[in-house]
Amino acid sequence: MIYYIVGILLVLGIIYLGYRCFALSNQLNNKNNELNSLLNSTEKKAQINQEFISSLSQELRIPLYGIMGLTNILVNEHPELESNKNLKSLKFSGDYLLTLINNVLQINVLESEEITPIKKPFNLKELTQNIINSFSYAIENSDNSLDLEFDPDLPEILNGNPAILSQVLMNLISNALRFTRNGNVLFSVHLINKKGNVNHISFKVTHDGNEVSEEDEKSIYQEFIGIENVKKSYLGTSVNSTIVKRLAKSLNGEIILQNNSQAGSEYAFVVDLETINPNDKASQITGSGDKQKVLIVDDNKLNLLVADKILSKENFECTTIDNGFDAIELAKDNSYDIILMDINMPKLNGIGTTKRIREFDDKTPVIALTAVDVTQLNRQIMRAGLNDYILKPYDKNILLEMIHKHVRN
User: Fold this and answer.
1) In this structure, which long-range contacts are made by residues 282-288, counting pairs with CB atoms below 8 Å and at least 24 apart in sequence?
2) pTM reported for the whole predicted model
3) What's the CATH number for 117-276?
4) Which is the CATH superfamily of the domain at 282-406?
5) Which of 138, 238, 297, 342 is the most exposed place for a label (fewest CB within 10 A)?
6) Can you list the positions of beta strands (E) in 209-280?
7) For the segment 132-187, what is each residue's pLDDT rounded down to a tens digit?
8) Residue 273: which pLDDT band, with cuts at 50, 70 and 90?
């Protein structure tokens, strides 16, 4: 009899354990479903956030492009205004605002880990001088000094990503100025060594001053800067360490910090940049006998004016149009050496316009001029038949180098 009782108890125990396992399994499945739902909701919110930041960046870039373009036109057409205090202030504000916008956009890109630097030829000496010039107004009424030291052994034209390089360097200089009072900031560019066509280059920012001893945990190497420190800062907030380091990493570079409260601080950004083979460089378009014909497509009249002014002065014959449909007809009826295509246009955007042009013309280079986050458009741009892109606002020399790259005499 006792065996029957024990057997019944065992069976009941097994049934109970099975029931508990089933209940726990259901609970785990329910929790798993809740977590998946929460994950999907979080990813959706993150996607919406990325799209919002990209749209905001675009809306900011469009008017900034006009401001910076017209400022450069004023300086070029009226050299006597180059030292004008108000114009220098306007140019500095535009350059610095562009850097801040790039940083906000870069946060969006880096969070999704989709940053893919695109290399292009650029003038290193000119880039570094422009960076120094962009800060010149900021120190004009201070007791600080900002100087550039450029190694004469460095080749001027190199291959790399000037936009990301500029962001890294401007943030290092900005950080140095923020923690310098009555001191000196030296920005030096040196060739460490050269192997073949690869130049191992050091960009150093060295600074001293009364506040250098307080820098330790308040610099760009702190994840975020508190608002109480922002109020003391020289140029406002700088990009946080994660963003700067990721930007540096995207260029296969490294940032090294040496801090000495007595002597000052030194940031070294070390990166490899390739020398451009003279045989691969596009010949200069300016100075040639015949003008190059360019079609500029943009729905913003101010953008058309800026591009027309820049290129007309560089011996181009410019045709401007404000919509994709008319651009297609012009491309059918005329022969152009290059087409500059705005991406974000109403009715028919630049990608759709280029696709239709490619139905009858697969040879004319088409360069995208865009304020859109191109990391989200790379695949569409390539499929549409666009040859390259420039992010607005762009520097005149970057535009000319891009054209030289795709148009040859």
Assistant:
1) 282/404, 282/405, 282/406, 282/407, 282/408, 283/404, 283/408, 283/409, 284/404, 285/314, 285/315, 285/316, 285/400, 285/403, 285/404, 285/407, 285/409, 286/314, 286/315, 287/315, 288/315, 288/409
2) 0.57
3) 3.30.565.10
4) Response regulator (3.40.50.2300)
5) 138
6) 254-260, 264-275
7) 887 877 777 677 888 899 999 998 889 888 878 887 888 888 878 877 777 888 99
8) very high
